Amino acid sequence: MLISGEKYIERLRGYDREIYVKGEKIDDFVEHPNVKPIVNAIAYTYELAKKKKEYTPYSEIVGENVNILNHVNKTPEDLIARLDFQRELSMRMATCNYRCTGCDAINALYPATKELDERLGTDYHKRFLKLLKEIQKNDYACTAALTDVKGDRSKKPKDQREMYVHVVEKREDGIVVRGAKIHQSGALAADINFFLPTQTFREGEEEFALAFALTPEDEGVKYILQNTGYQAKFREGGEFEAGNPVYGDRITCTIILDDVFVPWERVFIFEDLKATRNVLTLFANSHRCAGAACKAGFLDSMAGAASLMIKANGLENVSALRQKVGEIIGLSEAVYGVAIGAATKGYAFKDVWHPNQLIANAGKLIGVEGFSKALMNLIDIAGGIPVTAPSEFDLKNEEIGKFLEKYLMGSEKFTAEQRLKIVKFIEFWATSSHLVGAFHGGGSPAAAIIFLLYLANLKEKEDAVKDLLKL
Is 311 within the bounds of a domain? Predict the structure, then answer.
């Protein structure tokens, strides 16, 4: 059943969650200025899906159409449609849609649990399918948490077990887990939170080899929001001072698991090292491929902002500036082309279509480089004003507003307020958390390079040179 964004928000209001902002526990989290942008963004994933049927494929699991972010990709076309959705969401919202990790988790857990059951004769896949059916039937919004806090990186997990999510008690009806996940985008506004392992583990570290799901009813879960300058801006209010007033900056949280009970029916991997490797690899490749499509949408937004800034400054005829916009467009299409290539050249594993691993990891590198270059072009076009401009509140002040109306004007085609809105939007791109998120989200470029070196057939490339040079 496909629901509206309004229905999603109504459902969210019924959840009782322990959420902290700036050291204080908040009550009406749906309307809190630091949470509302997340809610708005996730709500839009429902609205856009309802508008375009290509984003609501048929699911054999429930016998009806579902949001593509809850779908199990069976064909290259399924995966490409998911990438199209990611790109359009990123372009239209200019921020995270918060549900991509949930989709990646679904498409990683499905085959990983199936392989696990075939190998051991267990029923983890059956458990997962039961939850997935519930997710699709109710049109739930899902996220996934992977990154443990890790503590002293020179120490092994078993030497600092509190720094990794682990089992503290095994019971007949389930397990009790403890630990924390950091950098979690939008988790507090989701219906279902998947928890996956942060890395592969060795023998003796089975207590960390876990995958499970939590619901809003689970007790002992605490969410602590990030606190950046942009979050402070949202608390200050204003109609457009924050730059992206509806959907906001990428907002993350740290999740504390304070001895949380998880029933066996929502435990999908338990102390199995091979299944942990499978789900982590499948998730990483899926997320890096989707991340490339997401970056393409961000670059589309930057291209629009750059073009508007040129017009607001009356510089439409300056070819050097138009060329920089063209470069952003080229970067966007290049990044997206890598994502589509990964989907097209992918492979089937346990009834799920996965992106080509080599190309998906290349998408991570190209996405980061493209994002960085596009942002530099956008800043170059805008000039220094995105970080030196007066505020929206100054513009509306009775004493000084009239002066700013005069002195902040550019082209006569734009009012001073319209130009300032564009400036604040570019400030949002330049100073928000998106660049760091692009760099480290889904793993750093260094992690992708490790995959690339492992997957690439360097010997074949060396042999080609040897043959050419008669070595």
Answer: yes
